[in-house]
Amino acid sequence: MTKSDTLYSTPHPNLGRFAFDEHVVEVFPDMIQRSVPGYATIIAMTGVMAGRYAQAGSNIYDLGSSLGASTLSMARELSDRNCTIIGVDNSAAMIERCRGYISSTTPPIELRCENIQDTEIRNASVVVLNFTLQFVPAEQRGELIQRISKAMRPGGILILSEKIRFADTHLQELNTDLHHAFKRANGYSDLEVAQKRSALENVLVPETLTEHQQRLRDAGFSSIDVWFQCFNFASLVAIK
């Protein structure tokens, strides 16, 4: 049974940096559903797009797989494909919990506990980065996207979902306010919103859509589209 996210419901005098530890793992499904607009749609459509673009005999990567939502969404669409799905996360607590969800699936799923910057990527036709790149140090993001592109088969896709920021100050303030209103509508208090925001400062570092799109073009992706956006959350698809 999923536990409710109450991690920031009481004052934390010594608020630490946000980390994907065992405390977050316990409440993660509730946390992300109540925090990310359109999360269920993004996960479901990740599977649908994988079903369209996954190539027989290739590898499918879920980089930053957490509890395996995107991994399992893709697995459901690829049962008739000779593919291997590889889920990668650097949180041992996430990987351990995820193993219980994927014990018997077709196609086979391999889980790796490691930094995605260190992951060997090869023979890929689908690569997913759902709310992952934003936690990678900014100076390492370009090299990661370049490696993904070089390891991808022609016609393969990268799905990139991120919290974004806006270059326009008014739009940034508006969408931040709308996101906070979304969280309050899902039962979070002003205290919880404020403490979570402080804990994530300098841990989750968002970029503009323009920055993401330019990085993808520089890496050799030919067709790039924002297929989903709600407030300051967006998902892009890039075709090799």
Helix vs. strand class? alpha/beta
Query: What is the radius of gyration?
Result: 17 Å
Order of strands, main sheet, comes to 3-2-1-4-5-7-6
Unreliable stretches covering 5 or more consecutive residues: none
Helices, by number, come to 8
Shape: globular
Task: Tell me the helix content.
Answer: 40-55%
Q: What profile does the largest beta sheet have?
A: 7 strands, mixed
Strand content: 15-25%
Helix and strand succession?
Answer: HHEHEHEEHEHHHEE
Total number of strands:
7
From the N-terminal CA to the C-terminal CA, the straight-line distance is 40 Å
Mean pLDDT: 96
Quick gist of this model?
This protein has 240 residues and is an alpha/beta fold.
Structure description:
α4 (92-99) links the parallel β2 (84-89) and β3. The protein starts with 21 loop residues before the first helix and ends with a strand. The model has no long low-confidence stretch (mean pLDDT 96). The radius of gyration is 17 Å and the shape is globular. The protein is 40% helix and 21% strand. The protein has helices spanning 22-35, 39-53, 69-77, 92-99, 138-150, 169-185, 190-200, 209-218; strands spanning 59-63, 84-89, 109-113, 124-130, 152-163, 223-230, 233-239. With 240 residues, it is of the alpha/beta class.
